[in-house]
Amino acid sequence: MLEISALTKRFGDRTAVDKASFVVTEPAMIGIIGSSGAGKSTMLRMLNRLTDASEGAIRFQGQDITALTGRARRKWQSRCAMIFQQFNLVPRMDVVSNVLHGTLNRRSTLATMFNLYPREDVETAIEILDRLGVAEHAAKRAEALSGGQQQRVAIARALMQDPAIILADEPIASLDPMNAQIVMDRLRRIHDEDGRMVIANLHTLDTARRYCDRIIGMRAGRIVFDGTPAQLTTGVARDIYGAGADFSESATSTAIEQDEAERPAARMAEPA
Ligand SMILES: Nc1ncnc2c1ncn2[C@@H]1O[C@H](COP(=O)(O)OP(=O)(O)OP(=O)(O)O)[C@@H](O)[C@H]1O
């Protein structure tokens, strides 16, 4: 259903994603791991068409995604909704209106300007908020909610678009462990109950192991691992992160970045 072939992104003479290829035949929950600068965000941004690929192809259910322009590109961005580490809500706007923002693509400019949302959309938004356990906060300003609650509102906004794919770029990197678990549990449930594909960039190995059916490991722009959590042995993880023999199972990419800072040879993949 989703086919990525030799997808490449260059920024000047830096290759952020280098001939990445993978195929997803049925909706799955996929985690992308790798150290900072490995190309994970760039990969998701190309999938969502926020960034244009330099080379290669993305096909979804037979459609050439890389070729889409204008309205067709915006439609794809609705089918392939993205959530971000920093939630990207409008802080002073109430929670329901933030969620209804997910319908902007299909509403007229006039309706948008005057905040005229159809009643059934408002009801759907509340139902989705309820599903995510934050309906009681519907009337509050987004900025009044905790980080974990805001991320659930961001997921609700994504669901409002009824997407086939949810792309999550480090969705729990700003959250404490308890809220991180709540957000990952919700994403997993959305996958299990709705059959939506979820592709998440994840900072910590244990999260990827625990929640994902399939893990893709990136290093210096290349896919260096693609398999199940069981196949992701400590040795494989060490290769993905370019980490030394002191690498431990509980290590996170944050800990590894610090290791890399001390090892100049491993800095290639880091931002300039
Ligand atoms: N807009 C840009 N202009 C120039 N270089 C960029 C741009 N975006 C990303 N890069 C570079 O591309 C490489 C991959 O970056 P990317 O953000 O995709 O990595 P990442 O694995 O998501 O890292 P992190 O976990 O730190 O977010 C890095 O070397 C980065 O500096």
Would you write up a description of this structure?
The chain has a single domain (2-269), classed as P-loop containing nucleotide triphosphate hydrolases (Rossmann fold), CATH 3.40.50.300. The chain is of the alpha/beta class. Residues 253-272 have low confidence and may be disordered. It is built from ten helices and ten strands. The strands form two sheets. A six-stranded mixed β-sheet has the order 6-7-8-3-9-10, sandwiched between helices. Residues 11, 14, 16, 34, 36-42, 271-272 line the site of adenosine-5'-triphosphate. Its EC number is 3.6.3.28. InterPro entries: AAA+_ATPase, ABC_transporter-like_ATP-bd, ABC_transporter-like_CS, ABC_transpr_PhnC, MetN_ABC_transporter-like, P-loop_NTPase. Residues 2-245 form the ABC transporter domain.
Concise description?
By secondary structure, the chain is an alpha/beta fold. The protein has helices spanning 40-47, 70-79, 95-100, 109-113, 119-131, 147-159, 177-194, 205-211, 234-241, 253-261, and strands at 2-11, 14-24, 29-33, 55-60, 63-64, 80-84, 165-169, 197-201, 214-219, 222-227. The relative contact order is 0.17.
